């Protein structure tokens, strides 16, 4: 029986995916539920499992864009699983009848391949090269006999002068559907929002003291979940959003949509690029709950198991460029959200404290926001509220009792 495998729908509103990588080859025997391909949608990269066991025949190439419901491979479910590699077939030699000698037919000489001088273009290639003002003689042809093809002309670049030596190779790689969609959304955010960024700095000494005192006990009590910085920042963001609800709103045409919950998108780096899974109802989570959920989502992103549902929604985003060493940046809004908080690296710097110069671990924080919906008062007030929560975490984020807040 031949089973047709069709592209399943990876999520609502997704009508097309791209074959990123085939994990099997044409003619391989596959087991049911074995991952046979990775497919890119505009929101995530997903694995495609075999629907049955049998011999597979591929019907799409890597890089092909295929519609949801389109057949991408066939599986012969009646084929037996091979014990090992089949022995090479021996060619049967035709035996001449007894008493007769087999006559060998004279070999036909292959016609001489037509060759072209370097730079001889096809008519289509010549037109493209003329438009790009490139001398055909400088282009190496990859066509039959050295002829310059249309693809050669499309990929040809004008000379930038005489090379001075060294490796000057280049590679042309198509971006994944996910990366192309991220690029499209980022450009859209720059073009379609009135984006501004405001900055502040945070003294991380109070958080460091809390972590130093409780992190070992926290990890032991909560099955290996670590007490990191993200739970403090998420708590501080939730508090600030409740004080300045416009930052937790979105534009929808001529309307403002506000939310009485906080779904925090956390930007994480995965093998396929930046992903932004969502910590839902962060306002209802404890420190342990936030850290456990961030850890779960980060592992799913790292292992390529993140789903569209994991990244759908979100009312505000936090991104941490500090893990890569960034001192300061202007993060780009994650549309349709209206605000994003950028964290950065922690550097010991001299600051004035009660008229004295002291050395403290300091972090710059940045809020990028859509000025169409958030005014300067709200944006600056929000960031100051985040700063206040981080610099006084026990009183403002833990209700005055760190042990109770950390469930110790």
Compact description:
The chain has 408 residues and is of the alpha+beta class. It has ten helices and 19 strands. The protein has helices spanning 123-131, 150-155, 177-192, 205-221, 229-243, 287-302, 308-311, 376-391, 393-396, 402-405, and strands at 2-6, 16-22, 29-30, 35-40, 45-49, 54-58, 65-67, 71-76, 195-203, 249-252, 255-258, 264-266, 268-270, 273-275, 278-279, 316-320, 339-343, 346-353, 356-370.
Structure notes:
This protein has 408 residues and is of the alpha+beta class. Helices cover 26% and strands 25% of the residues. The strands form 5 sheets. Strands 9, 12, 15, 16, 17, 18 and 19 form a 7-stranded mixed beta sheet that branches. A hairpin with a 2-residue loop joins β18 and β19. α5 crosses α6 and α5 crosses α8. The chain starts with a strand and ends with a helix. About 5% of the residues have low confidence.
List the helices and strands and how they pair.
Blueprint: E1 2-6, E2 16-22, E3 29-30, E4 35-40, E5 45-49, E6 54-58, E7 65-67, E8 71-76, H1 123-131, H2 150-155, H3 177-192, E9 195-203, H4 205-221, H5 229-243, E10 249-252, E11 255-258, E12 264-266, E13 268-270, E14 273-275, E15 278-279, H6 287-302, H7 308-311, E16 316-320, E17 339-343, E18 346-353, E19 356-370, H8 376-391, H9 393-396, H10 402-405
Parallel strand pairs: 12-16, 16-17
Antiparallel strand pairs: 1-8, 2-4, 2-7, 3-6, 4-5, 6-8, 9-19, 10-11, 12-15, 13-14, 17-19, 18-19
Helix pairs in contact: 5-6, 5-8
Low-confidence stretches: 85-97, 110-116
Largest sheet: 7 strands, mixed
Dominant shape: globular
Please tell me how large the radius of gyration is. Answer: 31 Å
Which structural category fits the helices and strands? alpha+beta
Average pLDDT rating: 84
Q: What separation lies between the terminal Cα atoms?
A: 60 Å
Q: What are the secondary-structure elements, in order, as H or E?
A: EEEEEEEEHHHEHHEEEEEEHHEEEEHHH
Q: What is the count of helical runs?
A: 10
Helix content: 25-40%
Strand elements, count: 19
Strand content: 15-25%
């Amino acid at each position: 029986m031949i089973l047709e495998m069709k592209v399943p729908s990876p999520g609502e509103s997704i009508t097309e995916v791209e074959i990123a990588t085939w994990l099997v080859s044409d003619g391989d025997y596959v087991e049911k539920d074995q991952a046979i391909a990775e497919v890119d949608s505009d929101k995530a990269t997903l694995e495609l499992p075999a629907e049955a066991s049998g011999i597979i025949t591929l019907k799409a190439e890597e890089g092909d864009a295929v519609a949801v419901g389109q057949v991408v491979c066939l599986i012969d479910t009646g084929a037996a699983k091979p014990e090992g590699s089949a022995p090479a077939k021996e060619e049967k030699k035709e035996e001449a009848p007894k008493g007769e000698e087999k006559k060998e037919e004279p070999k036909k000489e292959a016609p001489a391949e037509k060759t072209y001088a370097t730079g001889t273009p096809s008519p289509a290639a010549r037109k493209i090269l003329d438009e790009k003002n490139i001398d055909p003689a400088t282009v190496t042809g990859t066509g039959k006999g050295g002829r310059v093809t249309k693809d050669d002309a499309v990929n040809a670049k004008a000379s930038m002068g005489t090379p001075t030596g060294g490796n000057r190779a280049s590679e042309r790689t198509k971006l994944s559907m996910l990366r192309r969609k991220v690029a499209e959304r980022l450009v859209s955010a720059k073009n379609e929002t009135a984006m501004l960024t405001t900055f502040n700095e945070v003294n991380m000494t109070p958080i460091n003291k809390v972590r130093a005192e409780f992190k070992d006990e926290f990890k032991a009590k909560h099955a290996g979940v670590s007490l990191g910085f993200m739970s403090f920042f998420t708590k501080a963001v939730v508090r600030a959003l409740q004080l300045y609800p416009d930052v937790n709103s979105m534009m929808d045409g001529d309307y403002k949509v506000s939310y009485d919950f906080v779904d925090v998108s956390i930007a994480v780096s995965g093998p396929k690029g930046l992903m932004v899974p969502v910590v839902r109802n962060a306002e209802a989570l404890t420190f342990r709950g936030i850290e456990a959920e961030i850890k779960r989502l980060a592992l799913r992103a790292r292992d390529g198991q993140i789903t569209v549902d994991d990244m759908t929604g979100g009312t505000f985003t936090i991104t941490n460029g500090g893990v890569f060493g960034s001192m300061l940046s202007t993060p780009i809004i994650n549309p349709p959200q209206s605000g994003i908080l950028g964290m950065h690296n922690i550097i010991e710097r001299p600051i004035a404290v009660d008229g004295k110069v002291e050395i403290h671990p300091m972090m710059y924080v940045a809020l990028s926001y859509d000025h169409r919906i958030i005014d300067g008062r709200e944006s600056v007030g929000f960031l100051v509220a985040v700063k206040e929560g981080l610099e006084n975490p026990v009183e403002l984020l833990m209700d005055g009792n760190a042990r109770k807040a950390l469930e110790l």
